[in-house]
Amino acid sequence: MTTLLQSYAQGRWHTAPDEGTPLLSAVDGREVARISSTGVDVPGMIDYARSVGGPALAKPTFHERAAALKALALTLMAGKEEFYELSAATGATRRDSAVDIDGGFGTLLSYSSKARRELPNDTVYLDGAAEQLGKNGTFLGQHIYTSRRGVAVQINAFNFPVWGFLEKLAPAFIAGVPSIVKPASQSAYLTELVFRRIIESGLLPEGSVQLLCGSARGVLDHLGGQDSVAFTGSADTAATLRAHPNVVSAGVHFNAEADSLNASILGTDVTTGSEEFDLFVKQLVTEMTVKAGQKCTAIRRAFVPEHLLDDVVAATRARLNKVVVGAPDAQGVTMGALASIEQRDEVLKSLRALTKSTRIVHGDPETVTVVGGDAATGAFMSPILLRCDDRDATEPHDVEAFGPVSTIIGYRDNTDVIELAARGKGSLVASVVTADTAIAHEIVVGLAPYHGRVLVLNRDDARESTGHGSPLPVLVHGGPGRAGGGEELGGIRGVLHHMQRTAIQGTPNVLTAVGRRWVSGADRTEGGAHPFRKNLAELALGDTIVGGPRTVTRADIDHFAEFTGDTFYAHTDPQAAAANPLFGGIVAHGYLVVSLAAGLFVDPAPGPVLANFGVDNLRFLTPVKADDELTVTLTAKQITPRTSADYGEVRWDARVTNQSGDPVATYDVLTLVAKPNGEDQ
């Protein structure tokens, strides 16, 4: 019996009362599932996300949300074979499925790691340092990010039913914003299966994720200024959604990632048969055949120096001749089917438009040899390589065939290829294959305004390169113009897209309380136990130790120079140092100052402070000369418990002054401090 996909709405699974629309296998046309959103209370889902999911996500810190994502990723990975099995019905080979399934789980892990390393164990994120707004330092400003009190609605494309929703879910979840997932119908059965396992895991707070299988008609009607829509799909649909009154007038945050005419460029330094030549051809064929070319980042235009056109065409054809099209589970198959016969028809329609100004140099759109399948019932087609010799042709720069189709185009020089690539009117990604750094510089700088990502590939980075078509969680994914004008991922940037930046003005004490980071001018607590004798629970923002004064002698400077080998003239040559307009004589090493300061504030006995793991923002402000007296003030600035360890991180504000009170050095000292009794809290 065929499964009718369910939606997960308002904390329960919903089954539509009708029969639904059949979803057919891309491989053999059999019915895999049916889909319908009839009876789903969409306004109720949105309200549930705001009233239940939002508050549930507001309580955990960034680190606690990150821990939940990690646990979820590991749980899903442990059961991924069932996802691979079902993925084959979408036409995906095992390699294709790895990009989608493992890529999705990897994105969850990446965001979990990023959040724990780069965000505080808190629910508020501070953007930059406090700004002094008054002369006396009693009135300051600080930018903060807080979670929006809305819902993140994602509308996804058919080509990545797993990665497509997880790459949107991860940053929204870390940001503390609940999500409603709307998969593309054609491959929604795979999304629904993964989503079902997410709910069964019980790892995510109630209301933080919901699933809408079927039509999402009217969903934007119920969104407002605290809500966002992340859309992946065609530029036409993106334009329609962008014109919705609630996007135009009500402030709904809208992000679009649309298909684009991505380019790969072979540098003029490359010669036939070189490593870069082979890398270019291999990458082109890979991008044509992975997911049967159904990737928003696939290479649609391959730009080649005019004198290498024939050689590149011949080499690409030779590699394409080795491609085996067929059922994903058939022996030797290297390229599967398109998502549906309707999608194949769309590709063939676009191909007919492209051939108005290009010619086919490999492949036959009318026939294809299929291993383990039948082109009559499965959505199979041959990879098609086009060649364009008409410099005035518009079709290669306007028409995208969203399948295994690429066009090779000749160019004259760097200026020419930059102009040709720009005719695509904005793309997600371009790649440049060159071993010449000067060529790389010129082309990258020329391409950057028109692209969201640029890969430079050559023999030196090829072994580690993740490839032209692979968006990475730590890098932005999106592009200007035709590519949608949006941006996803990019590490913590993707989290901040779901948060509101607000400028807070007030006293140092107010900003310290709001941001939970001590601000210069706020109250300090001196006396009592040395701060290094306090465990993580006992420490408080503003706890301070003042050490000194300590006189710096000429013998100190000479010894440090001899002991370290830092005999720079300003520390050792009185005549040369006197001629230096900044110093006017022998000065102490900056690192001598920092070392002496440590001696003034450290409590040497064993205790809660486990290690010093770094120094941030070190600045030397006033030269220190022999007989100057140094005093250091060390203040607990930020306290960050680690959720998975028996210690936390403490950031200390260090300020070194001389006998006149002038700042000599300022910096942050980073330490690891034990929790009470080593407990994991």
Entry keywords:
alpha/beta, seven-stranded mixed sheet, five-stranded parallel sheet, 681 residues, 27 strands
Q: What secondary-structure arrangement, pairings included, does this model have?
A:
Elements lengths: L2 E2 L2 E3 L2 E3 L6 E4 L6 E5 L6 H17 L3 H17 L2 H7 L6 H25 L6 E8 L7 E8 L4 E4 L7 H13 L3 E4 L5 H14 L7 E3 L16 E6 L1 H8 L2 H4 L4 E6 L3 E5 L8 H15 L9 E7 L3 H12 L20 H14 L4 E4 L21 E5 L6 H4 L6 E7 L2 H9 L4 E7 L3 H11 L3 E7 L18 E4 L6 E4 L2 H5 L2 E8 L1 H8 L28 E8 L2 H11 L4 H4 L1 H6 L10 H12 L7 E12 L8 E13 L5 E11 L5 E12 L7
- The backbone outline, from C-alpha atoms, is globular
Q: Could you list the spans in which at least 5 consecutive residues all have pLDDT below 50?
A: none
Quickly count the helices: 20
First-residue to last-residue Cα separation: 49 Å
Give the mean pLDDT.
94
Instruction: Give the beta-strand count.
Output: 27
Strand content range: 15-25%
Structural class category: alpha/beta
Oligomer: single chain
How much helix, percentage-wise, in residues?
25-40%
Largest beta-sheet characterization: 7 strands, mixed
Please state the CA-atom Rg, rounded to the nearest Å: 30 Å
Strand order of the largest sheet: 15-16-17-14-13-18-19
